[in-house]
Amino acid sequence: MTHTGTGAVSAAANQRRVAFATIIGTTIEWYDFFIYATGAALVFAELFFKPAGANIATLLSFATVGISFLFRPLGAFLAGHFGDVIGRRAMLVITLILMGASTTLIGVLPTFSQAGMAAPVLLLLLRILQGVSAGGEWGGAVLMAVEHAPAKRRGLAGAFPQLGVPLGMLLASGVMAIMTGLVSPGKAFLEWGWRVPFLLSVVLIVVGYFVRRSVEESPVFAEIAERGRQTKVPILVLFRKHWHLVILAALVFVGNNAVGYMTTGGFIQGYATSKLKMDATAVLLAATVASAMWFVSTLVAGILADKIGRKATYLIGFAFQALMVFPLFWFVNLGNLGGLYAGLVLLSIGLGLTYGPQAAWYAEIFPASVRFSGVSISYAIGAILGGAFAPTIAQALLQATGSTAAVSAYLLVATLVSIGAVLCLRDRRGIPLGPDHEAEQATGATVFGPNRSAEPVAAEA
User: Fold this and answer.
1) Which of the listed CATH numbers 3.30.1340.30, 3.30.470.20, 1.20.1250.20, 1.25.40.10 matches domain 2-441?
2) Which end of the chain is more exposed for a tag (fewer CB within 10 A), N or C?
3) What is d(CA 294, CA 260) in angstroms, rounded to the nearest whole number?
């Protein structure tokens, strides 16, 4: 009996280490990713694209935010392949180092006035490397969390790496707000103040590296490797047998990503500072508070996903999100901080509810042998379709119509697309994730085929 108790304590301690490692790692990854978007909203148009003219420079600045998404599938393909062949943990460390190095180098780039066309080209190349890293990191983080967790707590466990996104946004907005507050918003900030948040990534890399190296490999992959069951070319198997799941899972992500990138992509920050003439520091602080609400609602969603199911939690979240896309700009267009806070905080509730269940549901959709490839590629494609050019599209709609109503309509359409995809998938809460259950994992994920996993299996709990 004592041995059993010790084993339970050890398992619980290991799960806490995994949760801590995934949340720290993803926070660092997304801090790096979002600090770029904040820079694009505040300074990159002026420093790297100014010769194109004010309006075109702003569009080009936001376009570089989106172009990196086109390279997420490359990161997802590479990390998915090697994650299914050599393991989850190794890919987590590699993607973390790649992201951190790219971010740090952005902090030392020359501007257009110093290097001419070489400056925006180098900026774009480093942003592409960020995209490759982001495309590969997410799948490894969520599988480490979900595959280590008991079946009854996968929703909450999967929410921990998801929490890294709002935490990364909170950290990025907070650090940039400190810099705009401490440094003159004029010449000094444009010369060196904006670089500091990028250079801080060096410290974060070191912390994240040691945290992630301390975590054991996923037990599911360890079992696959022990039996020599790795799929040689998992991506080919994925697209030959499960292409429809990749499409549906990607579409599930579209609505959350399009709406989320109104803040994480910097559109609202840029709109509030340039169009509404609000103070940059105050706007960044509002984004920071909204990120805190996003964090809370993501955590709540992970708990709800275990209580009422992944699908039900998603539908509640998307319904709330759909109701908020027009009030978002009604509040923001009041032109005061109260309206900005209200719009962003209310929007963040729906964002969290449609992000918290994602890790567990994605992991339960795909068979163990191609799971890393499946979740990574679905996430990357969904990010392209939803968030890649959301800030650019929003800016173009605003310039073409002169109204934010068109932007809200665009966000509503994206949300409705995701609701349709959610309705096409089954909730697979509790299905075994190990390699001995590949046949069960490979069938019954959509409402269009036989339901082979109607009764949740609690064997892994």
Assistant:
1) 1.20.1250.20
2) N
3) 10
